Amino acid sequence: MGIIRNMQRVHATQAAAEQRANTAAAQQRDLIRRNADLAIAAAQQAASDTERQRERRRLYVDARNADAAAANAEIRARLSDLDTLLLSTLDVDDHIDLQVFKKPVVVPPFDPGPLGRPLPEPRWDSYVPPQPRGVGKILGGDRLRQQQTASARRAYEEARARWVEGEQRRKRQLQARRRQYEESVRKHEEQMAAYNAEVDRFAAAVAAADPASVVEYFAMVLGNSVYPDDFPQHFRLAYLPKQKHLLIEYHLPPIEVVPIVKEYRYDRIRDDLTAVPRDEGEIRSRYVEVIARVTLRTIHEVIEADRGGLVRQVSFNGIVDSIDRRTGQFVRPCLVSLKTARDTFAAIKLRRVDPVACVKHLEGVLSPSPDELAGISPKIDFDRDADRDFTEEFNVLAEIDERPNLVTLSDPAWEQQLADLFGVMGLQMGTPSRTGAGVRWVATDPRPIFGGPVVVFATRGPAAGGAAVHALAGAVSAAGATKGILVSLGGIEAEAYEALAGRPLELIDGPALVTLLSNYCRVKARIELTETVTA
Fold this sequence. Notes:
Layout: H1 2-21, H2 24-45, H3 53-83, H4 87-90, H5 134-138, H6 141-207, H7 211-223, E1 234-240, E2 245-251, E3 261-267, E4 272-277, H8 280-305, E5 313-319, E6 322-323, E7 330-331, E8 334-341, H9 342-346, H10 355-361, E9 365-366, H11 382-385, E10 391-395, H12 396-400, H13 411-424, E11 433-434, E12 439-445, E13 452-459, H14 466-479, E14 483-488, H15 494-498, E15 505-509, H16 510-521
Domain Restriction endonuclease type IV Mrr: 412-517
InterPro entries: Restrct_endonuc_IV_Mrr (IPR007560)
Pfam family, one: Mrr_cat
């Protein structure tokens, strides 16, 4: 029933997009962005003559301040999305009525086209020669008329024979077209009947608690749950029919979904947006709340969608795919585990709970240091406790989402994506040079006063630390550049911001890059880690 899951997912995505578009944070962000665009346009339109240079500089400063305000609005919108992860699903009916997927048999009427119109039949009246008159009648007119009549008769008969042949051909073609239409209708009705029968079969199998069908149904439910773009939405499900027990192993987003930047400020001296880093304690606290909200949201959606009493107990393991910064190795720790009865969970008023406290109240286990990928002992061993015959893995984004995954792009595609982005943002990109750690460009900022060479370095390896910042600063100095930009898809450590020390450097992590691609290039990208991470 993959096609049903895809159709339902598209509908849910559209509904969630409309809901997010109406949020106050989104409206404020759009307003600030419009003001920024207006300020930039005003700066570009200012006269370049000497007398108006001061006004031009003032408008430029306004534009840069508007850029900072727009960037800060993006951060606030992101935090709003994270804070409402649980509340946003409570207004959605997660139950899926499978009968709505049945398709009516709509058959268009038969259209014969030109074949439905008979050819015009020749008329003898149009062939009869005129009667001879006057002198022509006296001078052998009757004989001439007989000759003309005989000739006209032959022409008429030939035309009528052609008409009869044409009509017979038309009728044969019309019959063939009608047979083709009837065959097409028959095939269409058979297809619709088979499709609707499959929907009925699937609905009956779900109602009868067929394990494979139950797993498929709840996969559709969780696939409808629309998260921010950089959330993985990858999970495994297993159903134990005797215990009416649903097991969920859910891939959590990495800690990089929490903005590492607290706010941006425009520095007039350096003509740069300075990033103020967010406190590590706040990042850890917010990430724990994200984990708790995803856990409660997933269980809520399963229970609310289950109107047939298929599930009496739910077990949830939340795992994360990441890179251990200490070893550089791919790891998959379990950061949260919860096992709860349906009745116990249904009694909770989710609108009023503290997510972390609620998970602990349900005797769930949360990692004390998820930012350090400190795993916990799960309450269930998914592979041991699940019946493998009734287990299936789902990757919602990989199945239906065509957004490019920045992690798995080929090196040329990755480099072209960045070159396009910074080109749209105003830089003239040079030829990329690859190193063992990533790829580097020496670009040019064409602005007459604040422009100059810019060093851009991008890596898809582990989170960038202070060493990466020092290396970029050295490259900027060696190139005689005015600014450096570091793009680190794997994230940016706090020590990297400490290493800035007033240097003209800009740090961009994975989520920030996804936002820039969306805003400037209209590219909806995603970040989904795999076991092999390309530098």
